[in-house]
Amino acid sequence: MTIKICRISGDGIGPEIVAEASKVLDTVLAGSGNSAVYQDVLMGGCSIDKYGVPLTDEAIDTARKCDAVLQGSIGGNTTTSPWYKLPPEKRPEAGLLKIRKALGLYANLRPAYLYGELSESCPLAEKNGEPRKFDLIMVRELTGGLYFGARHTEEVNGILTATDTDVYNENEIRRIARTAFDVAMKRRKKVTSVDKANVLDTSRLWRKITKEVSAEYPEVSLDNMLVDNCAMQLVRDPEQFDVILTENMFGDILSDEASMITGSIGMLPSASLCETSFGLYEPSHGSAPDIAGKNIANPLATILSASMMLRYSFNMTKEADAIEEAVRKTLSDGIRTTDIMPADKVKAASMKPVSCSEMGDAVAARIK
Prior knowledge:
Elements: E1 2-10, H1 14-31, E2 35-40, H2 45-51, H3 57-64, E3 68-73, H4 92-103, E4 107-113, E5 126-127, E6 130-131, E7 135-141, E8 151-156, E9 159-164, H5 170-185, E10 190-195, H6 201-214, E11 221-226, H7 227-236, E12 243-246, H8 248-260, E13 269-273, E14 279-283, H9 300-312, H10 317-332, E15 335-336, H11 345-349, E16 352-353, H12 356-365
Parallel strand pairs: 1-2, 1-3, 3-14, 7-12, 10-11, 10-12, 15-16
Antiparallel strand pairs: 4-7, 4-13, 5-6, 8-9, 13-14
Helix pairs in contact: 1-9, 1-12, 5-6, 7-8, 9-10, 10-12
């Protein structure tokens, strides 16, 4: 079997980490008698530099003709880059919004799992003197809400006033809720729906529709939680969560918080899914322009995103498991990029520091 992958390397460290994920993908596919072909397209700042827009229609057409998308990081330094002097609709991140909408990628899945080997890097490694063991997944609605509502800035009574509109309809909510409950059925059968129903009409509708969907899944428990409380509970007691279901902006913020309680945002993969097997897979972290080209970035989030691609888009469970096990073995062997190196000098002395490309080599070498 040959799978066709649209590859978007992106900006900053994107090309470095995508190269390592491709290396691992090629290794695991070859081991099972399969292969991948890549169609490379530009998105983000690199596309602005070449085409004047963050994402061309031709790039979207290429992605549609592929089986899945593997993407690196998008964007640059928001203070110094000339990309951020452009109107918002022409900045690098506008490409992300455009491709999600164009490909119908409405569901963003972001797992947050604490590797025992990285407990020394985690600010929440212990609870009452005992090692923590949390394993949760964030299911974020991706194509509605505040990020896609109407917006404008105007002068009102001589004062500049900006307006952003938060909009959700019941079909959008029902669709993402079903995705979350489907995911929960394969895990520990618990959904925590996060909203701001004490203030927002969109959240009150969100809570109503989510309750209706829960009736279709009698085996799955449903809890509702306000977003500010969820932010606190993620830090206080992340073990309580299994599947967190939430809207676009809340999910954007909470998933980054969830990534940091694992010890490093460099460990957090993600999948953006549509109603078919097609999906877009990318790391949750940014483009880190300050370290771009230095070969020191952590490629594990992108490698784990490739594992999610095999699992969700191609139903290649054995190959996905092989990548995840190779990552665990690499970590248990003490191999570390800079961001996951222990702060304690004694512990760090027993680890092997490696570059971005060396980390990719290490994972590929442990593929079974």
